[in-house]
Specification:
Layout lengths: L14 H16 L3 H8 L3 E10 L5 E12 L5 E8 L4 H17 L5 E8 L7 H14 L9 E5 L5 H15 L20 H19 L8 E5 L3 H12 L3 E6 L4 E3 L6 H10 L11 E3 L1 H4 L6 E4 L18 E3 L11 H6 L3 E3 L1 H4 L2 H15 L5 H25 L4 H20 L3
Parallel strand pairs: 3-4, 3-5, 6-7, 6-10, 10-11, 11-12
Antiparallel strand pairs: 1-2, 2-4, 7-8, 8-9
The structure holds glutamic acid (GLU).
């Protein structure tokens, strides 16, 4: 398979530039019209707000909040809200664009958006986080809407924050609109299966790729970086399918055990240990930077962006990378992985299970009728398999790697939306 990648000598300090670099390569290869390309190179709406919050010490602290809507050509915009210190306008813009492409790849009737607050949630009390989430909801009251822009959890947020944001939105509007936000707790309109969905999508994509590579799940080993919502479910579901998980890690510690790690025990340990792995005894502790390059067949980066770089890409031993995180591979690392013939299932396909079940949650909220977990999982798996196949076929047809093929798959759909809806 020959590959098309961005110019490796050109560094991308901006995450949005890294998105544009891949977008341009895909656009050229598929012959996307320049007009459509221009539309997609420019996010449709960017909102930045200041959120003054009364902290527990009685002092006011001002936080920066963001929401960027990248596109609405295929439907209302969809995408998570992250609470992290590196949140900024550029990062949110990149993540919003990826949501447009991710929703299109997964065949969801959505555009893309992303939001975030620059904060360190681990250092904030529950009361401070609640006031911050409610203030954010008030500031975004005209952006969010069931048929307008639908947020969800992302890094640093979970069902708890979604519940506060929903409650505030409902108070403003004087009615209950559960479909305005997804990833909610089950009791207030969440969907069964949503919590594990992103990890489940990683599992389905891994199995689909292994099948194409003529490898069997119970004959391969995997390393999973990140042990939060995505990484822990991905590791658990992969191990349930017979994959031997030899490495795991989070921001506190990394571990390796060539005999395989008992993932249920690791999940149990983290649950009782402030949700972190530090102190886990089921494997040997290794340095964080060793995890990605340790011996394995499948590598699942499911933590942060920009972790596979031109510095470490050459040392990666895996044959298959399945991107649980958003943007874990820099554009400079892509050609190195391609030269090594490593197959990379890109983020906009590999982690689209989360937004897929968010879509199911929204459908259930609109209908006021709720599905069983089995129904959710069956529908999810089918959608993932269809999306994987479409991207794989485009990789073959356009003689390119799966990342650019995923962009092409998305662009083929979004192009129709842009053209059919037209312009002023
Ligand atoms: N934050 C997740 C993502 O990056 C989920 C988004 C959603 O469910 O809307 O895909």
């Amino acid at each position: 398979m020959s590959t098309h990648t961005v110019n490796a000598t050109q560094a991308h300090d901006s995450m949005f530039d890294a998105v544009l670099a891949r977008l341009d390569v895909a656009a050229k290869l598929m012959n996307l019209s320049d007009e459509v390309l221009q539309v997609l190179r420019n996010p449709s709406k960017q909102v930045k707000v200041s959120l003054p919050i009364m902290m527990d010490n009685g002092k006011i602290q001002v936080f920066e909040g963001y929401r960027t809507v990248h596109s609405t050509h295929l439907g209302p915009s969809k995408g998570g809200i992250r609470y992290a210190m590196d949140v900024n306008a550029d990062e949110v813009m990149a993540l919003a664009a990826w949501m447009s492409f991710k929703c299109a790849v997964a065949n969801l009737p959505y555009g893309g958006a992303k939001g975030g607050i620059k904060c360190e949630p681990r250092n904030m009390s529950v009361g401070e986080l609640e006031r911050l989430s409610r203030a954010y909801a008030v500031s975004m009251k005209d952006v969010f809407g069931v048929n307008r822009d639908i947020p969800a959890p992302d890094m640093g947020t979970s069902g708890r924050e979604m519940a506060w944001i929903l409650d505030e939105f409902n108070k403003i509007n004087g009615e209950d609109s559960p479909g305005v936000i997804t990833g909610k707790p089950i009791a207030i309109g969440g969907s069964l299966g949503r919590d594990a969905a992103t990890g489940r999508g990683v599992m389905v994509n891994t199995l689909a790729a292994l099948k194409k590579m003529n490898l069997k799940a119970n004959e391969v080993t995997a390393v999973v970086q990140g042990f939060g919502n995505v990484g822990s479910h991905a590791a658990r579901l992969l191990s349930e399918k017979g994959v031997k998980i030899v490495g795991i890690g989070d921001h506190t510690a990394s571990f390796y055990n060539e005999k395989g790690i008992d993932i249920a025990a690791a999940i149990d340990f983290a649950a009782k240990n402030n949700r972190v792995l530090k102190g886990f005894k089921g494997a040997t502790e290794i340095k964080a930077e060793e995890l990605l390059t340790s011996k394995c067949d499948v590598l699942v980066p499911a933590a942060l962006q920009n972790v596979i770089t031109e510095e470490n890409a050459g040392k990666i031993q895996a044959k298959l990378i399945v991107e649980g995180a958003n943007g874990p591979t820099t554009p400079e690392a892509d050609p190195i992985l391609n030269d090594k013939k490593i197959i990379c299932v890109p983020d906009i396909l590999a982690n689209s299970g989360g937004v897929t079940v968010s879509y199911f949650e929204w459908v259930q909220n609109k209908a006021g009728y709720y599905w069983t977990e089995e129904e959710v999982n069956t529908k999810h798996d089918l959608k993932m398999e269809i999306a994987f196949e479409a991207v794989w076929n485009n990789a073959t047809q356009f003689k390119t790697g799966m990342r650019i093929a995923a962009y092409i798959t998305a662009l083929q759909k979004i192009e129709q939306g842009v053209k059919l809806k037209g312009a002023y």
